[in-house]
Amino acid sequence: MTSLASDTVVIIRGRGRVSALGLEANWGAAASPFSTHPAGLPVAALPAEAEAAVAALRQAHPAYRQLDRTVLLAMLAARQAVASYQCSVRAERHSERA
Q1: Which domain holds residue 68?
Q2: pLDDT tens string 38-75
Q3: What CA–CA distance (Å, rounded) separates 66 from 46?
Q4: Residue 17 in domain
Q5: Any bridge partners for residue 35, and if so which?
Q6: What is the total count of domains within the chain?
Q7: Residue 4, domain member (yes or no)
Q8: Nearest CA to 13 among 76, 75, 84, 79?
Q9: Is residue 23 part of a domain?
Q10: CA 63, CA 67: separation in Å to the nearest integer?
């Protein structure tokens, strides 16, 4: 059994999401994509762009083909988070040079 040091820190530097609202951070849906399920829960389908991203990720690596859809969605969100962090670091470095 291993023990964690008391000074263990988790830092979150980016955010990502995959939802019925779309992949982009600035979505501008005129109407909500959600409808009410017979059980009273709000439900919605992913936009075609998000479905295509899931399909592309599934085909990107042979091991990904057997992954559950929810795992692929989490991977897409994680990739967005990393990309958003990298963009913010680049912008910060650019402003420091100016």
Answers
A1: 35-97
A2: 888 888 888 888 899 999 999 999 999 999 999 999 99
A3: 20
A4: no
A5: 43
A6: 1
A7: no
A8: 84
A9: no
A10: 7
